[in-house]
Amino acid sequence: MPLVIVATLVVSSMSAVLALVIVLVDLVVNNYGEVKIDVNDGAKTLTVKGGSSLLSTLGGEGIFIPSSCGGRATCGVCKVRVASDVGPHLPTELPFMSGAEIKDNIRLSCQIKVKADIKIVIPEELFAIQRHRARVAEIVDLTYDTKLIRFSLLEPAEMKFTSGQFAQIVVPPYERVREETVRAYSFASTPARPNEVEFIVRLVPGGTATTYLHKHLAVGQELAVVGPMGEFRLHDNEAAMICIAGGSGMAPIKSILFDMRERGIGKPAVWYFFGAVSKRDLYLVDLFRELEASWPSFHFVPALSAPLPDDHWDGETGLVTTVTKKYMDEKMDKSAPKEAYLCGSPGMIDASVALLKSEGIPEDKIYYDKFS
Amino acid sequence: MNAPALSPIVLLFAAVFTSNILLSNFLGMCSFISISGNIKSSNGLGIAVILVMTISSAINWFIDRFIMLPLGLGFLSFIVFIMVIAATVQILEMVIERISPALYMALGIFLPLITVNCAILGVVLFIQIRHYTFLQALLFGFGSGVGWWLAILALAAIRAKVDKSPVPSGLKGPGITLITIGLMAMAFLGFSGMLAVQ
Fold first, then answer.
1. Best residue in A22, A31, A111 to probe B by mutation, most B CBs within 10 Å?
2. What sign has the CA pseudo-torsion A215, A220, A223, A224?
3. Residue B2 lies in a domain
4. Can you give the pLDDT at residue B197?
5. B71 contact residues in A (CB cutoff 8 A)
6. pLDDT, tens only, A302-319
7. Which one of A14, A117, A264, B144 has the fewest CB atoms closer than 10 angstroms to its CB?
8. What is the pLDDT of residues B74-128, one digit of tens each?
9. Chain A contact for B194 (CB, 8 A cutoff)
């Protein structure tokens, strides 16, 4: 037999044998059998197939732990208290845990695998989170890279959320993406219409979910929306309200402000600073101008950090934090109590928190939703 | 084509000390330098290397002696050896993930990277070109693994001390580590006249 055939035969049969061994070992080693999950001290007992992460296992059973990164250990939101022993904290969990949380055995549910019977404790309100079938009712281009997507909820037909909260959009597999992708987006609509939800989605270059939502999603299509989740919401007090949001961070602020109008909630003063780069990044300005005209204590301040010459921009120019500082120093009552609502990129949030603290707003009165 | 007349036990000690794969051949450097910052991970990776080296030395000895040599396929040995090493690492990875998730996460990318750790392929190739017997191959593989484990543990311990010492700022991190490794290699060089395994 020619050497080349012998060589090919040897290499391929050896690969086949090795592959077979790996598959066999995988079957034995990664088979955890059936496992019981005890939720809230016997309130619910689930029998599931072991081997997957706690987050996805619970999701499969209809219990949705809030998470915005979809299980990649980058957001740190999917915390769950585990009452049984599941081993020490993993290096991927530690950056998100305080000393007290480690002592309480708070874990990131996306990082721990369900291998044996496990006991967990979760807040009651998580049982209210549901997976809704939803139909795309409308897609509006807000700017060249930002869209507003409106969903009609089909089954269950209503989502009882609070303005400021978020939901997860489940993006189906497409093109080379083989698995579902789950990403969190804040509601841009108000709770007054519980059968319709709106999200503002900005295209992230190379982003799996935003690329799908921008380039592939069509009106009439059905998707799954899981919610409501999140702690970001309006706080009931008599403080003046300063909102800072850039890019698609407008969504929860829009929801909160219009919710206040619809329910007739007033504050001594409400300021909304909207940061963008140039005029082509601004959107819904007319809507907020109308709101400003009908609501005397509300002030809308769009700020451009780098307006183009063609923009003929006569509004505020500079970073949104710089503009906010100028207004706080010149136009606001220095002595009045204030609180702040922020939504945007981690860089913008950090800069805003530093500014607001230096302006005398206590840290516990600064509420924010950081994109991660 | 005859096996060298060395007792396998002597070969074992030679592999650990006098011709330590890391400090006399300088093979397997990248994970040696990057993981040695932490004693616990060094220990884990060292044990993983011992396992992979021993297992792949044994399997590859059989493949070399009973398949490659009789069929005259010596030119394929690099590909075949790497395949066996890769499969061994894959299996070990699954087992470690099951037994100790914390170690699995701590080793991170370095566990799959054992596949391309040149120390492992180096040991397997030494066994091939020196025509070791099976027992010699097994103990040489095991000994080289133990030598690697010992070297990374020693370096990790030294680095733990060095971290608390005033190192000139330009030398912090990899700089002082490489100097440390050089000094360690010189110390091991002191053993080298005792035995000739090359």
1. A22
2. positive
3. no
4. 65
5. 6, 10
6. 999 999 988 888 889 999
7. A264
8. 888 889 999 999 998 988 888 888 887 777 776 766 778 787 788 999 999 999 9
9. no
**Nearest chain B Cα distance for residue A146, angstroms:** 37
Nearest neighbour of A15 by CB, restricted to B83, B94, B102: B83
What is the per-residue pLDDT for B196?
67
- The answer to whether residue A187 scores a pLDDT higher than 80 is yes
**Closest partner CB to B98 (pick from A22, A29, A88):** A29
Q: Residue B78's domain spans which residues?
A: 8-189
CA distance readout (Å), B85 to B59, B79, B186:
9, 10, 30
Q: What is the CATH number of domain A34-126?
A: 3.10.20.30
Question: Does residue B73 belong to the interface with chain A, where contact is any CB pair within 8 Å?
Answer: yes
B90-99 long-range contacts, CB within 8 A, separation 24+: B90/A22, B91/A21, B91/A22, B91/A25, B92/B48, B92/B51, B92/B52, B94/A25, B94/A26, B94/A29, B94/A30, B95/A25, B95/A29, B96/B48, B98/A29, B98/A30, B98/A115
A265 touches chain B (CB under 8 A): no
Q: Is A24 on the interface with B (CB under 8 A)?
A: no
With contact defined as beta carbons under 8 Å apart, do A243 and A341 qualify?
yes
**With an 8 Å Cβ cutoff, is A30 touching chain B?**
yes
Nearest alpha carbon to residue A29 among A109, A115, A92, A88: A115
A25:B91 CB<8 A = yes
Closest partner residue to B106 (CB to CB) among A3, A87, A91 is A91
pLDDT at A28 over 60: yes
Q: Is A218 on the interface with B (CB under 8 A)?
A: no
Is the residue at B36 inside a domain? yes
- Paired tokens of B55: 């297992």
B125 is a domain residue:
yes
With cut-offs at 50, 70 and 90, classify the pLDDT of residue A231.
confident
In chain B, count of helices (H) and strands (E)?
10, 0
Query: What DSSP element (H or E) covers A199?
Result: strand A196-202
* Residue from A276, A272, A227, A224 nearest A248 by CA: A276
- This model of the complex carries an ipTM of 0.80
Residue ranges of domains in chain A: 34-126, 129-229, 240-370
Residue B150 within any structural domain of the chain = yes
Give the Cα separation of A10 and A16 in Å (integer): 10
Residue of B nearest to A15 (CA): B83
Q: Given CB atoms, is A85 within the 8 Å cutoff of chain B?
A: no
Q: Which segments in chain B show pLDDT lower than 70?
A: 1-3, 106, 108-109, 195-198
- Beta carbons of A152 and A195 less than 8 angstroms apart: yes
Instruction: Pick the residue from chain B with its C-alpha nearest to A88.
Output: B102
CATH 3.90.180.10 fits A129-229, yes or no: no
Residues of chain A found within 8 Å of residue B106, distances taken between Cβ atoms: 91
The answer to whether B109 contacts chain A (CB < 8 Å) is no
Q: Does A92 touch chain B (CB under 8 A)?
A: yes
Q: Which CATH number applies to A240-370?
A: 3.40.50.80
Number of domains in chain B: 1
